[in-house]
Amino acid sequence: MDSDAYDLVVIGGGTAGLVAAVGAAGTGARVLLAEEHRTGGDCLWTGCVPSKTLIAAARRAHDLHTADEVGLASVEPAVDLARVIDRVHEAITTIEPHDSPERLEGEGVEVARARARFVAPGRIDVDGRTVTFRTALVATGSRPAVPPLDGLADVDVLTSDDVWDLRILPDRLVVLGAGPIGVELGQAFARLGSHVTVVEMAPRVLPTVDADAAGVVADRLAAEGVDVRVSTRAVRAEPGLLVVRGADERGLPTTDELGFDRLLVATGRRPRTEDLGLDTVGVEVDGDGHVVVDDAMATTGDHVWAAGDVTGTMPFTHVAANQASLVVTNALFKLRREFHPERMPWTIFTDPEVAHVGMTEAEARSEWGDRAVVRRHDFADVDRAITGAVTTGFAKLVATPRGKLVGATIVGESAGEAIAEQVAWLSSGASLTTMASATHPYPTTAGSRAARSNADLDEPSTSTHRDPGGCTSVASGFRAAGLTRGGAGPGRRAAGSSRRPWQRRPMRSAP
Ligand SMILES: Cc1cc2nc3c(=O)[nH]c(=O)nc-3n(C[C@H](O)[C@H](O)[C@H](O)COP(=O)(O)OP(=O)(O)OC[C@H]3O[C@@H](n4cnc5c(N)ncnc54)[C@H](O)[C@@H]3O)c2cc1C
Questions:
Q1: Are 277 and 108 in contact (CB under 8 A)?
Q2: 494 pLDDT exceeds 60?
Q3: DSSP per-residue string spanning 151-212
Q4: Is the predicted pLDDT of residue 294 greater than 50, yes or no?
Q5: For a substitution probing ligand 1, which of 38, 39, 43 has the most ligand atoms within 8 Å of its CB?
Q6: One fold for both 5-144+270-341 and 152-267?
Q7: Which residue has a Cα nearest atom 35 of ligand 1?
Q8: Confidence band (pLDDT; 50, 70, 90) for 452?
Q9: Could you say which of 3.50.50.60, 3.55.40.20, 3.40.50.720, 3.30.870.10 is the CATH number of the domain covering 152-267?
Q10: Which region, left, alpha or beta, applies to residue 334 given φ > 0 means left and ψ of -120 to 50 means alpha?
Q11: Given ligand 1 and candidates 18, 48, 353, which is best to mutate, with the most ligand atoms within 8 Å of its CB?
């Protein structure tokens, strides 16, 4: 066999590249993975893992600071950022072996620590060595985009690439950009003790998220002392100073000078597609440089596929992994499994977390107008939330006019865990009625959500429910099964039944 011929050559050893390489090697394919820096990619080194570790420390600090909410004495935590960052690196080190070249080689993948680029159809240069491929995967990811702001080149800015090297907590931190990364990191640094200002040119934080959910996060940031400046544009920077333009309450233009010790730029990401030789294999990129793919993750180039951030579809690790697994079967076995963005959930790890899958309320409204069914219930009246002193937030279920679930947004404690159930329901094509028939443990927010999901479909199509408590899921289950129709009224028979030994406390009446 030609030692330079491969069934699959993967360019990039982040999540997408690793999943594809290991998956393909597992089928017996001959696989080469080229990674120019370090296997594991952004998620391990500069993304999910470090950010979630920092957020965990910030959460503990916040819990100490707000202990009086649960009847304890609040404590002002002493924060040594160097120790927090050491723990960030410990987490990376603990996880890193899963993504290491040794592990890959153990799975049958050949690993080249090298920069790769296409040179001709079927050919890739891997650091001076030309290899041939039957199929190839572009999985080169993305990097922080730093805007061409006047004076910014003279400022020693931080990005999500290098903020993990900070050892001293900045007293004044300005965060440019209120997308997921800016808001997650801004809140974390504020909780650790920095005075944080977030500057966002859109009219709200998390501009692409359900507006109600983004509003909950904005309120929480403000309550925690983060200075959030929306509809505000950075116009000039110099060391220690950011000049911004906004508007006052009357809409008149204002100019402000924001002093900072460190400036964190979180204004989006751009794909790593330059100097990849994509034109030599007929792979098109869009105006932002993302590789253009079809639903099966095929590019416009023969036998060339793409997955992950480089495609600009949904910039999340689990999406990169999903797309990479599609590539393995589609490229090597000529199947046509398609990417379904509508089934891909995501979470923003602010506190409260925001998690979402499928259509937003706004999208459903633009599709079906007032006939879209939207069920929202707030956690303020959910027993589990009350006991845990985490009553901020809500769950919103979005359904077709006939009641089929097409979207869910949850903002609240552990929303990222809670969305998993909605993903399963949505993927199975369930209706709100079916969802309400499932029994959940009490007290859980999931149980209360299921209870409310079947709130009579003839109610107005938007309703904000004060949840009656987890026990009501039992009542809703009966209702969904049709056991209460024509009886004492929806939910009442279950609520009033004396044959419910599990009910050890008075149940609040169903609405
Ligand atoms: C701060 C932050 C927090 C995040 N938090 C989350 C989260 O909580 N949950 C979540 O789901 N997602 C999160 N993400 C997003 C997640 O990290 C990315 O979606 C994911 O890493 C994308 O994986 P990828 O394989 O597409 O690309 P990457 O991980 O970027 O991997 C691409 C690899 O290709 C290599 N490469 C590039 N060009 C070449 C070349 N020519 N030759 C060889 N190698 C090359 C690069 O060195 C890199 O290692 C976060 C991102 C950031 C920045």
A1: no
A2: no
A3: TGGGS--B-TTTGGG--S--SEEEEE--SHHHHHHHHHHHHHT-EEEEE-SSSSSSTTS-HH
A4: yes
A5: 43
A6: yes
A7: 12
A8: low
A9: 3.50.50.60
A10: left
A11: 48
Residue 502 scores a pLDDT above 80: no
Residue 478 — pLDDT band, cuts 50, 70, 90? very low
Each domain of the chain, given as residue ranges in start order, spans 5-144+270-341, 152-267, 352-491
- pLDDT level of residue 507 (50, 70, 90 thresholds): very low
Give the H/E segment covering residue 235.
strand 233-238
State if pTM tops 0.85. yes
Q: How many whole angstroms from its chain centre is CA 269?
A: 14
The CA 309 to ligand 1 mean position distance, Å, reads 7
Pocket test for ligand 1, best of 55, 88, 140 (most atoms within 8 A of CB): 140
- From ligand 1's centre to the CA of 143, what distance in Å? 8
Identify the bridge partners of residue 246 per DSSP, sorted by sequence position.
254
What tokens were used for 171? 């007293």
- Atom of ligand 1 at shortest distance to CA of 39? 49
- Cα–ligand 1 centroid distance for 496 (angstroms): 54
Q: pLDDT digit string (tens) for 11-44?
A: 999 999 999 999 999 999 999 999 999 999 999 9
Please tell me the class of the 5-144+270-341 domain: alpha beta
The closest of 358, 399, 352 to 380, measured between CA atoms, is 352
Q: Would you say residue 67 has pLDDT above 70?
A: yes
Q: Which residues line ligand 1 (CB under 6 A)?
A: 11-17, 34-37, 41-43, 46-48, 51-52, 115-117, 139-142, 160, 181, 272, 276, 308-310, 315-318, 320, 349
CATH 3.40.50.1110 fits 352-491, yes or no: no
* Bond prior to 443 in cis (omega within 30° of 0): yes
Are 255 and 220 in contact, with CB atoms under 8 Å apart?
Answer: no
* Per-residue pLDDT tens digits for 45-59: 999 999 999 999 999
- For residue range 336-385, list pLDDT tens digits in order: 999 999 999 999 999 999 999 999 999 999 999 999 999 998 999 899 99
pLDDT(506) > 50: no
